[in-house]
Amino acid sequence: MGRETNDRIRNRITKSALPPDGTANGAKGAGATKAADLWLGQQLRALRKGRDLSLTELAERTGLSIGNLSQIERGVSSPSVRSLKKLSEALQVPVGDLFQETDLPPAEEMNYIVRRKTRPMLHLSDTGLQKELLTPTTPGALQMLLVTLQPGGSSGPEFYTHRGEEAGLVLSGALELFIEDERFLLKEGDTFRFKSTQPHRFVNVSAKVTTVLWVTTPPGY
Q: Could you report the per-residue pLDDT of 110-137, keeping only the tens digit for each?
């Protein structure tokens, strides 16, 4: 089987793959969490198949185990942020292509406005992390996200890096931010900025949901 272009693969991963109960639009509860895991797994499997890669080959490219990849594709588990970045690099797609699609905005708003109901979402249930894209998906110099962390939720146990710079404002809860060898505890109203090339990770140390307005430049998704 020949390799497909990104456009052809994306055409196969449309909103028809979303669960019929509308859980992709931010519904709460275990059902929505499971649906998000299944949706992400379907995307990753379609991309892998479209590139003629076996699970063994993808495992070699990402350093993830075959068992872990199989669980992710079946929606049994979800990857950490670092693992997701490895998968996107191995599959040669931006991580933004793995956000769940929602209703398309009107044509006149696409370059400027993101309505609440049209925010693309990425839900990683195993790490208790959800990201909502707040800026248009058209090309730009920066990107703004609403990051929601369940109690104990995190970016994953591994530090990760990428190009650019990022900043944020803790809207609620408490965020423990690790940058290289430094640890910072940020509470509601606190802000941060650092170079994304510095190894970093983060975790919600609050007993409540933590939300963060997160800005990256250049866009990471």
A: 889 999 888 888 888 878 999 999 998 7
| In a shared domain, residues 173 and 212 | yes
3-state secondary structure of 29: coil
**Tokens read off for 218:** 């250049």
Sheet arrangement for strand 174-179: 182-187, 174-179, 200-204
- pLDDT tens for residues 75-107? 888 888 888 889 988 998 888 777 776 666 777
Residue 4 or residue 210, greater confidence: 210
Running DSSP on this structure, what letter comes out for residue 6?
Answer: H
Residue 10 is part of which domain span? 6-98
CA–CA distance, 194 with 190 (Å, rounded to integer): 14
Residue that is last in its domain, among 62, 78, 98: 98
**81 and 176, same domain (yes or no):** no
Reported in sequence order, the residue ranges of 22-173 that DSSP labels E, i.e. its strands, are: 121-124, 129-133, 143-149, 165-172
User: How many structural domains compose the chain?
Assistant: 2
Contact 119, 132 (CB under 8 A): yes
